[in-house]
Amino acid sequence: MDDRQDHRAASPPKTSGLLYGLGFGGFIDGIVLHQILQWHHMVSDVDGHSVATVAGLEVNTLADGFFHIATWLLVLAGSLTAVRAWQHGRAAPSWSFQTGLMFMGWGIFNLVEGLINHQLLGVHHVRDDLGSPLSWDVGLLIVGALLCVGGWLLYRQGLRILRCRAG
Question: 71, 30 in Cβ contact below 8 A?
């Protein structure tokens, strides 16, 4: 095995940071936008499930709960991936490596969720309480893209640090 392959085998996995970012990005969306600000819920823009009725709020709260289970499972998967890698002798990530991947995961979450739920399926928007939510939806996509770019830059910096440590 040459030095480049040996370095790759010992470097930390990218998957744990990305999974953490996907999960924490979902938690931030669910906790801040759904629960604290109450701008939208999972199916708040679906006919018959308006949050203005008790029945609609019950359906949306249930859907939000399933969403939080999914985000929790992503964080759990990120934790298990990291622990498993360390058990196999992989290096621990630098802060910029891991934080960069987490930001990228959060950005990917925003882009995928924004495109699928907001634009393709139309089950909710960033601001369901406004008459014209498109600008908020576009804003979320821009934030997602910026998180991906900023995360990638941080990740690259962390990768350089890890390569310097490896010699």
Answer: yes
